[in-house]
Amino acid sequence: AQKITQTQPGMFVQEKEAVTLDCTYDTSDQSYGLFWYKQPSSGEMIFLIYQGSYDEQNATEGRYSLNFQKARKSANLVISASQLGDSAMYFCAISTPTDDKLIFGTGTRLQVFP
Amino acid sequence: EPEVTQTPSHQVTQMGQEVILRCVPISNHLYFYWYRQILGQKVEFLVSFYNNEISEKSEIFDDQFSVERPDGSNFTLKIRSTKLEDSAMYFCASSAKIVVPPDTGELFFGEGSRLTVL
Lengths: 114, 118
Known about the structure:
The complex is a heterodimer of chains A (114) and B (118).
Chain A: E1 3-5, E2 10-14, E3 19-21, E4 24-26, E5 33-39, E6 46-52, E7 60-61, E8 64-69, E9 74-79, E10 88-96, E11 99-104, E12 108-113
Parallel strand pairs in A: 2-12
Antiparallel strand pairs in A: 1-4, 3-9, 5-6, 5-10, 7-8, 8-9, 10-11, 10-12
Chain B: E1 5-7, E2 10-13, E3 19-24, E4 31-37, E5 43-50, E6 53-57, E7 65-68, E8 75-79, E9 88-95, E10 108-109, E11 113-117
Parallel strand pairs in B: 2-11
Antiparallel strand pairs in B: 1-3, 3-8, 4-5, 4-9, 5-6, 7-8, 9-10, 9-11
């Protein structure tokens, strides 16, 4: 079975600084996809970024980038130039050919302070 | 921008009552999902639905739960006899493509329906 581990229950970062949110995964599938979602206090799930296991380059979407280290089975989210509006829960998730769905980690609560 | 819409945003019900949560997925999407998030916990998969039938369901999705797509636009989750532990946020999600790599489609989530069982 697939598993996502997010070891940081909470993180603090000062505005305009960069922050890395950790995510490690476990799967026996060679092909898989890794996702990051943001959940603000209002509750909705907002897709941020996706990395495929065969993608050779790290995914980037604006201020978000994914530090994908396949050998270490890690897919850390890097948020550059943090903004107050980045304060939210962040969930890492995995999908595989054997699991037609996303499996989520427990999340990391990010607090950005002025 | 197209979006997944869910109703109601919040429902309070008595234990033992039936609840129906409604979702309107994005119109050209083919794959539909329900997830659950108990307050402060992670998002858990309940069920996936494709081609008018359940593709997969989790252990949580027992006989008290059912899903259907009655009219080609709505996608509903029914809880037949609610329990206290069913209190959670329920998310509907849809995708144009199967969320399986390498041909992965983005999974779009609705804003959720908060269910409170008293």
